[in-house]
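INFO  loader      accepted 1 record
INFO  loader      residues=200
INFO  predictor   begin
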Amino acid sequence: MVPLRRRFLLPGSSSALAAERKPGEPVQASSRAILIEFFMVRALRKRKRQIARSASRQKAPRAKPIELYYWPTPNGWKISIMLEECGLPYLVRAVDISKGEQFSAQFLAISPNNRMPAIIDPSGPGGRPISVFESGAILQYLGRKTGKFYPNEARARVAVDEWLFWQVSRAWPDGRPSDSLPALRAGTDRLCDCPFYRRG
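INFO  predictor   done
INFO  writer      dumping tokens
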């Protein structure tokens, strides 16, 4: 089989003349032919690189999306927002709590406390699937998985955990305190110290 480059040798080009010349005979080629050959060779090399990149993409398996068991409540919003901010692919599995779907055997196998949200990550630790329930635990897991919004430094991580657990047990995601904390409803200076809660 004729090599790919040899099929495109232009009459009068340096490559064509070199292929046809006798040993010891000087090669003479027109400048136009040399220029055309240069661009053809560059185009062939570019095409080879494109084919190689395409083959590597086909070989690399795509990451399977995380399954988010969700209903549009403040707790559900927290996880969908976190997944979006982390840039993780995910599929929404609606759990209609008005119809009691959170009590189904399928959902209880994922979230034993019959509360949403919950997730299944097909690419969990060690490459094996893992399910996680409770919004705070899910936020921690996603932060550790991606390295976003969850620092590695121990002291900084403690600060994040403090405010995460405060939010999970005491306030809505938008910072409004729950009815169980009248002091926070009146406003406190400490609330403004939260690294994720800033006004104006």
